[in-house]
Amino acid sequence: MSRGLAWLLGIAVIVAAWWFAGHPGWESREQQVKREQESKIEAGVSEVYRWKDDKGVTQITQSPPQGRQYTVIKIREDQNIIESEAPVPEPPQ
Fold this sequence. Notes:
Number of domains: 2
Radius of gyration: 24 Å
Distance between the termini: 95 Å
Structural class: alpha+beta
Number of strands: 3
Shape: elongated
Mean pLDDT: 79
Number of helices: 2
Order of helices and strands: HHEEE
């Protein structure tokens, strides 16, 4: 067996082993997003997504909407405040 063929066979065996082992070290975009969200939850930092539906009503959800513009709002454990889009008027005294 020639040396080049042996190298090619060795590389093919390594690639096949990597493929059948479930591609360790490689993540799809969905897997990366899921891992990042899980790590943020463990760290006590979470995010919500603010967006408007077809009727113009503001929605706040835990997952980003598909095909719409949205704003990411980070929520910290030591705060429980989400800024409103418009200032709330002071009640009359």
